[in-house]
């Protein structure tokens, strides 16, 4: 189970990172616009832009059904640059918490970064927490959850 959890988690992170690397641009920004109509009125519009070349990625007329300005703010805050940084940090943390063997017979699998005396056998709480970031993805097993994780 534990090796599968680590492999599965790394796969989730690598997939997320690859999708971010393939997305348009690195950094996204939100722009509010007032678009004049032919009838003399105007529509309020929110657009998600590539922050560097100002390419419009998606826009919505407000108020409207579906995506709204709060959704676009959320998307912009989670732009490819942020996702790649998150993924690189998580992969580094997983590297830091590689398992090793302890005990007189070298028969207890432990996290080499955590305090073994505290009871952090492999997988340690840190690795379980990283895995739990993906708990809503197919393949995550409830028994991997660290204590206190919301379903
Ligand atoms: Zn650890």
From TrEMBL:
InterPro entries: DUF6221. This is DUF6221 family protein. It comes from Nonomuraea purpurea. It comes from the Bacteria. The lineage of its organism: Bacteria, Bacillati, Actinomycetota, Actinomycetes, Streptosporangiales.
């Amino acid at each position: 189970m534990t090796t599968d959890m680590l492999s599965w988690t790394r796969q989730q992170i690598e997939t997320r990172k690859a999708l971010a690397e393939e997305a348009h641009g690195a950094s996204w920004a939100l722009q509010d616009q007032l678009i004049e109509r032919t009838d003399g009125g105007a529509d309020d519009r929110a657009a998600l832009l590539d922050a560097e070349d100002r390419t419009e990625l998606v826009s919505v007329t407000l108020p409207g059904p579906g995506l709204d300005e709060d959704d676009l703010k959320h998307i912009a805050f989670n732009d490819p640059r942020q996702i790649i940084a998150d993924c690189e940090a998580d992969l580094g943390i997983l590297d830091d918490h590689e398992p090793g063997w302890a005990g007189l017979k070298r028969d207890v699998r432990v996290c080499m970064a955590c305090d073994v005396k505290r009871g952090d056998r492999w997988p340690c709480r840190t690795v379980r927490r990283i895995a739990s970031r993906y708990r809503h993805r197919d393949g995550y097993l409830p028994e991997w959850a660290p204590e206190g994780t919301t379903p």
